[in-house]
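User: Can you predict the 3D structure for this chain?
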Amino acid sequence: MTQALLGAGLLGMALPALSQTSPGNAPLDDLVVTATREAKDAFDIPASIDKINQDTLNSAGGFQVNLSETGYRVPGLVINNRNNFAQDLQISIRGFGARSTSGVRGVRLFSDGIPATMPDGSGQISHFSLSSAESIEVLRGPFSSLYGNSSGGVINITTRDPEPGQRLEAGLVFGSDHARKSTLQFNTGSENFGWVLDASQFETNGYRDHSQARRDNINSKMVFKLDSTKVTWVVNAVDIPEAQDPLGLTAAQLASNRRQAGTNAVASNSRKSVQQMQTGLVIDHSFNADTGLVFTPYSGERQIRQVVASGTVIDLNNDFYGADLRLRHRFALLGAPLLLNTGLTAGVLEQTRQGQSAENQPINRYEQNSARQLDQYVQAEWLFNEQWSLLAGLRNSSIDIESKDQFLTNGDGSGAKDYGKVTTNLGVNYYLSPTQNLYAAYGQGFETPTLLETAYQNVPGAPNFNPNLNASESQQYEVGYKARHGSTKVNAALYAVDTRDEIVVKSAAAGLTSFQNAGRTWRQGVELGLQHRFNAQWASALAANWITAEYKSSNTALTAGNALPSIPKQSLFGELTYQASEQLETAVEYRHIGRMYANDANTAQTDAADLLNWRITHNQSLGDGWRLRTYARVDNVLAQRYVGSVIVNQAQQQFYEPAAERQVLVGVSVTHRW
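Assistant: Here is the predicted structure, written as structure tokens:
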């Protein structure tokens, strides 16, 4: 009851009478690039897009290890923290990606313009450098598919550009469950050259038994400016020497001891190790004020070794490379400005997969897998008068997936399938006034199965390429309202998604998963984002999402009318911030996480949860270029017991991955500029 009243209070404070003051020119915090590929005021884009800026990332005062620490500020974005570093966060946008059992599916990921999503649609975020992030942009809805296959949404992280002069920053954070993170950042810059280096190490004993982990990250960003050309060179690496996997719990295990490891986790020593190195260039050349070219080549490798609950050992060696070439040109059409972007995207993922029935046993699985992508796209933005603007896009996607079985003792599990689709997008903005607009958008989506999702026709069972999986295709509709009045921002959207051949979990057992197509699914929802500053000291924010996601057709395993699992029906974030001075800020946060189902039969579900968080930050100048920052944070102040995520359709009913109870952290950083 206390939490619900607090949430209602925050909602009320975020809905004051709107003043009529014009905001004037858009501040930098409102400029986004994800929707249009050019720096553009988010207010003028006919799409749902939010930006978490650097000040918000810093004031949140977390470890800056997981996107889940700040992602709940964005309506429609759900990041379920598994408390399990052997598995990536479960990220979904308007339900896309909720099926993921490992890694990120259905959501396109970028870091400094370099793809973190492979040509088959699989993505990883463990190499994201959050401690040096400048902003995180989240695009939802119809225009997400402008980025190609598996774009139910787009998350784009941008790390800081180098600053003039030199800066050195060192930080330490300590938290519950013996969690600790150390960070070192170095910056050097001049008029035409700059370099930022960020290195960090995170360790934790884990909230649950058998969940120790360590993660080392390095992110390097160099920027060169040569006349009309800007070259950005990004190199990043992540090393996870070992992350224990506590697996999921049954309802009975959850009730008896929520901190315990799941069945066979300790006996099989289930765990994962990851090493990844990636590099890429962003070459931006302007021929003149109206025409430019952007070339983004990248390459990398990712090695994964995983021991699953059955004791099976999986070794994956991934080599990937690709490029995007984009030409932009601005001209006049019927006397009104039109910006045209046209481009070509190519990508290759080459994967070697080996398996053993147990450690120190002979290899019993060996495959050469590949995914190849070749897309062409065009996007146009036309401001045809003071009240109307139009954004349109067309993309032709082609993805080829192949598996060549090299271990034939148990039969030939080879297979291949080609996927292709032309998708279109259209959005219209209508300005009610300089501070208010209405928009409507339509888009087609296209999502292929990943190499992992085609690896099994059934589990348990021998690995065998699944040729029966079709790409899912969706029709997305959205209408929205945006307003900026003085110190208040409002973003509201209604959306609906009609999907054919949705890719869903068929069965999950012993750490392995098989997938199938659902006939048809339907999602509809409402998103609301509000920000208001009362005065120099007090400010509030609200992010709310209501969604209905259900099957619309039946087969032997799925029932029409049942809800899609792993999608909370409601999510709410409210924040009230008090800035006592330029040095001291504190805030209270409220979160509501709605119930979600764990299986297609809807016979297993989680309870809704209401959480209260508190944080405080103090910044102090020490003179001579030195600055000290100290902060503390308490998550789940009232120690509510809830489930953070679910493992969909787990065969042994080990659905539940419990979230941590009360978590405390304290941190300090020292910065020197010269």
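Residues 2-673 form a domain with the Maltoporin; Chain A fold (CATH 2.40.170.20). Residues 348 and 372 are 5 Å apart (CA to CA).
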